[in-house]
Amino acid sequence: MSNVLISWKKEIRAIFRDKKFLSIILFMPLIIPAFIIGMGALYDSLNEVQDLKIGINYQMDEDEKQLFDQMGGKIEVITKSEDELKEEYNNKNIKGYVLKDNNNYTLYLDTSSTDGMTLSEILRRHYESYNNILGAKYLVEHNIEPKEVFGIINVDLEEQAEEGRNFFTNYIISFSLIYLVMIVVVTAMNTSTDLIAGEKERGTFETLLTFPLTSNEIIGGKLLAIVTSCIISSIIGVFTSVPALLFIKNHTETFKDMVLNVNPLTVILTIISLILISCLVGVLAIFLCGRAKTFKEAQSKVSFLSFVSLIPMFTNLANVSSDILYFIPIANGGQILNDLYLSSINYTNFLSFALTSVIFTFVLLVYVSKQYKDEKALF
Fold first, then answer.
1. CA distance 197 to 200
2. What is the pTM assigned to this prediction?
């Protein structure tokens, strides 16, 4: 064991002397808080109506004016001819315009922009409300009680989401957790390619073999160094993500009610999860790099690991839930972290994840141990 620690110290020094890999380990986790704050500001802007200016080519009646006034003056409306409105829009003086032809209203908006998308939703609701007002007036004029027409059915929403949960909070928290796994994978990929394939390419692997160390002790030290760098990187990710989440909670309207399921148990299970993922990814990266003769070839072989780590993100976006994910190495890491912070802890699923990770890690360790006793893997 002492020889493994000696090998580990040598590899750790090499990692922290390399500015390129040090930047990956230390600065890549900072992408998470940047994403959280950026997306938090974006989502908040989508839910907040800024002072938007639109144009119409008709005169509003009192009912329609009152509907616009209820928006608190957030939308400024100007009335001009069709040609003038087109010119105003092309000169970017208005965000969009509405043309009326008899009872047909056509909205001219650029929905690829945030303002255009916001206006599209607001104006559609506005004209639906205006249409209901006109319909109610028509019924009254014909001695028909509007409630008999508009009140045939009643729809109520019984919210089933946990307090402080909505689509935006779930998406940001889920992406941040999955990116933690991505950080582990990328860190392992970069450190393993240099510590294994890089040493082969530089011809320094042969020098290591002259030391009074067995191949298992050398690989054990390298694996321990890779796992250490992964854990350091993921811990930085955790301790920068939480302040970022608290920042958007305190400084945005959309996330002010956000609830984080942070307690001693989830923290302990998160640490265990990240260690298991780091061990699995580390030994898998060493296994793949051992089959490569050059640095570039090793990079190519380990690159697919990053796609595996993103599987939970794609399944979440597609709203697909499957227990199979808990048995897919690496992918189950992101899935289990999602469960810890976005739902109640399912110990059966956590056990499935832990056993799968341990079994795969052990099997790969046995194979790697044999692999690096072969001269083809060493040179």
1. 5
2. 0.70
pLDDT of residue 172: 82
CA distance 285 to 193: 8
Q: How many C-alpha atoms does 158 have within 13 Å on its Cβ side?
A: 1
The end-to-end CA distance of the chain, in Å, is 25
Q: Which CATH superfamily hosts domain 49-150?
A: Periplasmic binding protein-like II (3.40.190.10)
Helix or strand run (H / E) with residue 75: strand 75-79
Is residue 52 predicted with pLDDT exceeding 70? Answer: yes
Instruction: List the chain domain ranges.
Output: 2-43+165-378, 49-150
**Tokens encoding 379:** 């040179």
If you compute the radius of gyration of the chain from its CA atoms, what whole number of angstroms results? 29
Residue 96, SS3? Answer: strand
Residue 227: count other Cβ atoms within 10 Å of its Cβ.
23
Count CB atoms within 10 A of the CB of residue 144.
12
Which of 194, 274, 266, 198 lies closest to 230 in space, CA to CA? 274
Element spanning 106, H or E? strand 104-109
